Amino acid sequence: MTKLTQSQIDMANSTDPRRLIESLGYVCKGKEHAFNVYSSSSSKSELYRVDRNRNTGRYVFCDKHASRGGDIIKLIMELSNMKFPEVIKALCPDAITDKSALSEFVSKRAAESAVPKPALYPRIPMTREQDKVDGRKYLTDIRGISGKTLQIAEQQGFVRYIKGAVLFCGFDESGKVRNVAKRGYLSTDMNPKTNFANSDKQFAGLIKGDPKSVWVVEGGVDALALIDMAYMQGHPQHPTIIISNGAGEKKWIDTPHLSSIIRSAEKVTIVYDNEKDAQVEAGTNRAHQGQKEKIEALIQREVNTYRPPAKYGKDLADMNLCKKRGMAVSQTPQPSRTCSLERN
Questions:
Q1: Report field, pTM of the whole predicted structure over 0.85
Q2: Spatial distance between the Cα atoms of 299 and 292, rounded to a whole number of angstroms
Q3: Where are the beta strands (DSSP E) in 272-330?
Q4: Strand order across the 210-217 sheet
Q5: Rounded to whole angstroms, how far apart are CA atoms 200 and 53?
Q6: What are phi and psi of 126, to 5 degrees?
Q7: How far apart are CA 63 and CA 15, in angstroms?
Q8: Nearest to 102 by CA among 1, 4, 2
Q9: Which of 45, 63, 335, 344 has the highest Cβ tally under 10 A?
């Protein structure tokens, strides 16, 4: 095969890969522009998350820990024994064989890139009163979050509710919701952990608190747990918390209102999780190190790190729950992260 051009590679990376992925024995759940890849039909078997960049049209992926990723060609190579040229041919034969189709693709992309893209916003369904009741019950009874903390997070707009799920929201400087992470709690939800369409992760979630101390956590429940533990330890105010949506997420550091908060802080702390095995933990550690180095380059001083003691479980959310129950994780019956609030 002759040497591939960048246009051929771009054309392959812009092709919907779901049919090819499923032909390799995997399961795809979601929509064309955003879907998850599973090893089986079980929601617990999530392997990767795939998104289509709305500006370039190319597909990119990351693993479920957001610790590594790349373009869709790299993903197919990981899922199969195919080599780089074989993946391009399997994804998009026209990129190899049809010069007119390739020329049309190049022209279309050039025309699209010349037109400014309007901002797209996630669409949040209307919240019913029962959704609030159920969502609060999940966060308090199952995840151990206090009512005081929920009130703080709700007042700042970070926590919202829809049927069967809690939403964690990130805003732009004008106060518009730009990033929505859904965390479903119903046992019937086949895709409980995902981001809404048109979410932009550069707008990380934020809970304002003490501006002198900024903590960076991966998930929304971790942020709520941190607030709980701050008040349990007798602090008069909880820290300002940025919710990064994953160890590998760094785009938010360049977002003006978030970078300003970091620069103004006297102390910045990144929270690491305890992963299921050494290999996964090594990957997330490397990803967090990338976050740490980028923040240190921004503020020109050292960033602190914190990892919950392993006896308390995986993350701050587990630690908060165990402390409230007065037990180590090995002594504590592990709560299901789904609950039976199903209603018609």
A1: no
A2: 11
A3: 304-306
A4: 205-207, 239-243, 210-217, 267-271, 304-306
A5: 10
A6: -65, 140
A7: 20
A8: 4
A9: 63
Judged by DSSP in three states, 138 sits in helix
CA–chain centroid gap for 143, Å, is 19
Look at residue 340 in the predicted model and tell me its pLDDT.
43
Q: Helix, strand, coil proportions of the chain in percent (round to 5)?
A: 40, 20, 40
Question: 36: which DSSP letter?
Answer: E
Q: Hunting for tokens 């103004």 — which residue is that?
A: 264
Q: Which of 39, 1, 33 is nearest to 17 (CA)?
A: 33
Q: Residue 115: CB partners within 8 Å, gap ≥ 6?
A: none
CB atoms within 10 A of CB 326: 8
pLDDT of 55 = 75
- The encoded tokens of residue 242 equal 């940025």
Summarize pLDDT for 40-52 with one digit per residue, the tens: 877 778 899 999 8
Calpha distance 110→322 (Å, rounded): 55
- What residue type is assigned to position 96 of the chain? I
